[in-house]
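assembly run, all chains below
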Amino acid sequence: MPEETTAHPVEALLRAVEADDQSAVLAIASEIHYADLAQAYQDLDEERHPVFLKSIGPELAADMLVELPESMIEEALDHFRPAELKVLFRELSDDDRVDMLQAVGDEARLRYLGLLGPEDEELTRSLLRYEYDTAGGRMTTRFGRLFASMTVKQAIEYLRRDQDNTETLSRIFVVDAKGHLIGRVRLRDLAFNTWDTPIRDIMAEVGSEQRVLATADQEEAANILLKYDLVVLPVIDEFDHLLGIITHDDAMEILQEESTEDFERFGGIAGDQDEATYLNTPTFSHFRRRAGWLVGLAFVSIVSGYVMMRFGSVLSQAFVLSLFLPMVVAAGGNSGGQATTMVIRAMSLNELIQGTGTRVAWKELRTGFLLGLLLGICMALFTAFILPAFSPGLPAGIGYPRLALSVAVALTAQVTSATFLGSLLPFGARAMKLDPAVVSAPAIAAIVDVSGMVIYFSVVRTLLGL
Amino acid sequence: MPEETTAHPVEALLRAVEADDQSAVLAIASEIHYADLAQAYQDLDEERHPVFLKSIGPELAADMLVELPESMIEEALDHFRPAELKVLFRELSDDDRVDMLQAVGDEARLRYLGLLGPEDEELTRSLLRYEYDTAGGRMTTRFGRLFASMTVKQAIEYLRRDQDNTETLSRIFVVDAKGHLIGRVRLRDLAFNTWDTPIRDIMAEVGSEQRVLATADQEEAANILLKYDLVVLPVIDEFDHLLGIITHDDAMEILQEESTEDFERFGGIAGDQDEATYLNTPTFSHFRRRAGWLVGLAFVSIVSGYVMMRFGSVLSQAFVLSLFLPMVVAAGGNSGGQATTMVIRAMSLNELIQGTGTRVAWKELRTGFLLGLLLGICMALFTAFILPAFSPGLPAGIGYPRLALSVAVALTAQVTSATFLGSLLPFGARAMKLDPAVVSAPAIAAIVDVSGMVIYFSVVRTLLGL
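ok done. output:
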């Protein structure tokens, strides 16, 4: 992963804030990108925030706030007076304003809605109906929209009048008189055609799969953008009315959020992905997101401990048998975790549609068997040829070949079954309408620890006659 | 994760291929998006590929091939005759052609280069100098480029002449007479300004951080696009000459690839991310990518086994001590894995720049201690109040409170140290110029298994006097 190169202006900005030099802060902040501004803000101690925000004023703050983690929004807005907030909210695009209002408490949201003009308030309230993580919750209504009956000349004039209110003109959508989505044109089609050409003649169709319902999951929208290499995805209602657009940069953010969520869930971290950065999250929040799984899984481990306790007499007959117990147990956790990793990732890349469970299970059964066999053979060779040099003391009447065979059989059985189980559990979670990534690496390990104990002791008792 | 809805045309296409009805295949294939075409191709059995490719011909195949996993490219190209390949390569944009030539063997690459026209061959050879995973390797040279000295009218005519050769006109870059990048204009600036306006007057500056060196890592390029919400990122050489652009859809693919790679590495899957889908990857490839870690870690587990064997006499003094051993060991793996998950993810989101290691370690030390304490208290309560009901038999002279204390101390020590270690190892990997995600969940578990054994037996021996 490449290092972020710290731009010098950001450092100068931080120094100006420390020195409480408001005009210097404003001067530097006006020059740099809002993404850098947001980074600088997050790097500051909290007591510097008021100086920073007062210096840059509501116009510059608006763009910057969009880039902040949700958890920092309300505190930042609190530093502005109502008149400043009016300016700030006017600066924001509709989707960003909605995101911001979704990030604050109910009381603040009502207060802020009252600061918007009547038109903005109505629009914002209608957008607030969609959940944050739906296509409707992420869309903007600031986009180029033309009527099919216009000419190129009318279209250019229409767009020019409204150009400050559109986020992108790289794709312009065409609607009929009733607002149904019927096509799209590119700005280049307007720029490169004669002025009397009707829009109807130069528009392209929008395929039924290249649009998304406002109520659909945000991830579905992002995947459509990704699959069809779109810059802009139109969002419609169930009657095909064009409501808004989702842009490529939203899609990138969504994909980033979703893959972070998968990654964290799989690592046994509970709760929604916190938008705050790792270092900005307080220790206690880190603690809270991990404690649940850790305590829950500890109780599952008691089952492993119980099995071990019950078979304690086997181990006490020859200490050498302890040598292989952790390996058999761990090999299950490792191979099961690998299988789960592959399946969860393939699921989030939309590769495993409904009905592929059997094919996956069959593939993993074979993969698991091959892995178990390989591991079994390696460890059998170790037991038969290297272990004797350490003369660890075998149970009475048992030779190294028989011990090697037992270890190999136990490993093969454990790895095969753990791999198989690890590949199936995400399907089980999906069938129960859960995120497959709840089958985390620690969870799978805890489960196959138990089976590993049972398999090892059963095999050793049977094959060695203990 | 939402389900992919299977479009009916794709099914019709598959049926037409099965029926060997070449004209039906062509008719349907001409109507659907190349991404769907590629999906249909991958869903077919290999023996149907020749029929499919012959039916759609080189023009349609060109766009589709771009969407295929690398491993399927060479086989697909093999089905075309040289004359068809000439057409196919002419259809491709320069960056796609380069990607394709990078996906085939050396012998095939030379043969294919010979099929290109002299101009294309020279361009392709110059692009092949950049590694696949660098900004230069991903860029396209088909982009809108204007000279600062042009007027709007000249610019529009210049772009119109060349419009089939540009991938995007949403951002057009401006160069000086020597080809240095000096600004950018949007197509809307051209469309909405009078024809005699000089480009120099309407162009915007391109910040020094909003460009990327051709030799930079592809992930750096994607992160710049993401950070600054760009549609297009200019790629330059060390003298600021504009060489090409990377578009937003490339960035999405790069981010997807990189997060898959992180996820798989962390799950203990070795090797580069295979571009083939899970189900299209043969069982033996799955086996190969997992076997290395599995065998390596099994040998690490022998160390755990050795510790257990050495302390076997402790366990044999009271079987109840076995009850907590798997828990202490597993709690380390779980908490260490959680810490590693958080750190690796924060690193790939570029949150942890150089020099933050100490802050992370301190945060994790506190988090780990809190987690260990919580777990210790839970299990002490269990041991003191619930366990006695099962009268498991304690070592001579030891009461439940003392056992509870030992378990609590061992858990706290194990979870604290495992969390601390889990957070530091990715920094270690990074310092050694490795991908931090090589510190996989299984690797951290194997390491803290050993420390867990040592901690548990030491604590039990000391506090219980065994």
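Residues 1-7 of chain B have pLDDT under 50 and may be disordered.

Residues 400-431 of chain B form the longest helix (32 residues).

not gonna interpret more than that til we talk
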